[in-house]
């Protein structure tokens, strides 16, 4: 597991570095999303599937909106014939896609089957939660008391998404 | 960016305050009724976005607003983390300890620190959504201007 985690982390760092130095805004946006989807696999490897779901939703929405804005405003697509440089780019893309799918398969295989092994925890959450947390709403009691660490991660996911948007969408800094 | 027609402006004028108050209500009653910081924060951000879309704004105002919302966002997540860390200092040393007195179940001021978490997370979520919206809007304005 440590090996898979280190490979994914190296991929994420490379994606972030490319996002800062890319000339083209669209490739910067897409390579920034490597960081987000790599983080999904990190969360799955570290046995936090609900955090991974939040991360994948926030990352997909941000990516779609940012690609739409960039395509709408700045994109001029000069049509060129494919040269050897393009084949290197296509090969790198395929390599990244295959490795991400491989690690995703490995990460989901390491989780418990859905619906089993969780009822033991849930029973303790439901029994006497109002007395333990003082909150009449059980869901809020669970997410801010029993699983507060998880909620901190979910709030941090939003902060990292905002950081990515603010870093990428700067045309003045690029010139 | 330019505003919309007078019909949209008038409707927004009537609605935006109520939407904002409803978001605040959802955040503050998060430990009693369904909802909480995440849902209420999105509603509060929605009222701001509604106002900006309907009335339009100029570039200077947008950048000033973006600075403010970025500061609010970071302050919200920092304060939530500070409350979580305060559990490490008081009593038995547990991260995310509910260290305030719980009170009676079902009252507005009860449940220890859970309402405080709701308020700060709501602050953070509202400011995050608004910051993303403003960043996209400022980007669009910059592209059309340059």
In short:
Chain A has eight helices and no strands. Chain A is mainly α. Chain A is elongated and about 70 Å long.
What structural class results from the helix and strand content of chain A?
mainly alpha
Low-confidence stretches of chain A: none
How many helical stretches of chain A?
A: 8
| SSE succession of chain A | HHHHHHHH
- Give the overall pLDDT of chain A as a whole number: 78
Helix content of chain A: over 70%
User: Helix amount of chain B, in percent?
Assistant: over 70%
User: How many helices of chain B?
Assistant: 4
Biggest interface found: A-B, 36 and 43 residues
Provide a descriptive summary of the structure in words.
The complex is a heterodimer of chains A (175) and B (146). With 175 residues, chain A is mostly helical. Chain A has one domain. Chain A is 77% helix and 0% strand. Chain A contains 8 helices and no strands. Chain A has helices at residues 2-21, 25-45, 49-73, 84-109, 119-126, 129-133, 138-146, 148-168. In chain A, helix 1 runs antiparallel to helix 2 (25-45) and helix 3 runs parallel beside helix 8. The longest helix of chain A has 26 residues, at 84-109. Chain A is elongated and about 70 Å long. The termini of chain A are far apart. The mean pLDDT of chain A is 78. Chain B has 146 residues and is mainly alpha-helical. Chain B has one domain. Chain B is elongated, with a radius of gyration of 18 Å. The model of chain B has no long low-confidence stretch (mean pLDDT 84). Classes of the chains: A mainly alpha (175), B mainly alpha (146). Chain A binds chain B through residues 62, 65-66, 69, 72-74, 130-131, 133-137, 139-141, 143-145, 148-149, 151-152, 154-156, 158-159, 161-162, 165-166, 169, 171-172, and chain B through 30-34, 36, 38, 70, 73-74, 77, 80-81, 84, 95-96, 98, 102-103, 105-106, 110-114, 117-118, 121, 124-125, 128, 131-132, 135-136, 138-140, 142-144, 146.
């Amino acid at each position: 597991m440590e090996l898979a985690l280190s490979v994914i982390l190296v991929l994420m760092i490379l994606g972030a570095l490319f996002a800062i130095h890319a000339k083209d805004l669209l490739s910067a946006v897409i390579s920034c999303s490597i960081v987000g989807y790599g983080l999904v696999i990190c969360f799955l490897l570290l046995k936090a599937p609900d955090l991974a779901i939040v991360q994948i939703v926030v990352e997909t929405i941000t990516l779609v909106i940012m690609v739409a804005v960039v395509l709408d405003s700045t994109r001029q697509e000069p049509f060129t014939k494919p040269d050897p440089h393009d084949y290197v780019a296509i090969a790198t893309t395929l390599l990244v896609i295959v490795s991400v799918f491989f690690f995703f398969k490995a990460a989901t295989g390491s989780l418990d089957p859905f619906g089993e092994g969780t009822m033991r925890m849930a029973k303790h959450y439901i029994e006497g939660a109002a007395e333990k947390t003082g909150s009449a709403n059980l869901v809020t009691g669970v997410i801010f008391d029993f699983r507060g660490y998880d909620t901190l991660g979910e709030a941090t996911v939003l902060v990292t998404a905002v950081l990515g948007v603010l870093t990428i969408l700067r045309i003045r800094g690029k010139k | 960016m330019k505003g919309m027609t007078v019909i949209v402006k008038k409707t927004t004028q009537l609605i935006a305050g109520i939407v904002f108050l409803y978001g605040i209500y959802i955040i503050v009653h998060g430990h009693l009724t369904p909802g909480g910081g995440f849902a209420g924060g999105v509603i509060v951000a929605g009222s701001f976005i509604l106002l900006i879309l309907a009335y339009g704004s100029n570039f200077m105002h947008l950048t000033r607003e973006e600075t403010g919302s970025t500061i609010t966002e970071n302050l919200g997540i920092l304060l939530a983390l500070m409350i979580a860390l305060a559990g490490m200092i008081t009593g038995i040393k547990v991260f995310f300890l509910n260290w305030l007195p719980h009170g009676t179940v079902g009252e507005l001021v009860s449940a220890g620190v859970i309402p405080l978490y709701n308020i700060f997370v709501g602050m953070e979520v509202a400011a995050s959504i608004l910051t993303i919206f403003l960043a996209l809007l400022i980007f669009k304005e910059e592209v059309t201007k340059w």
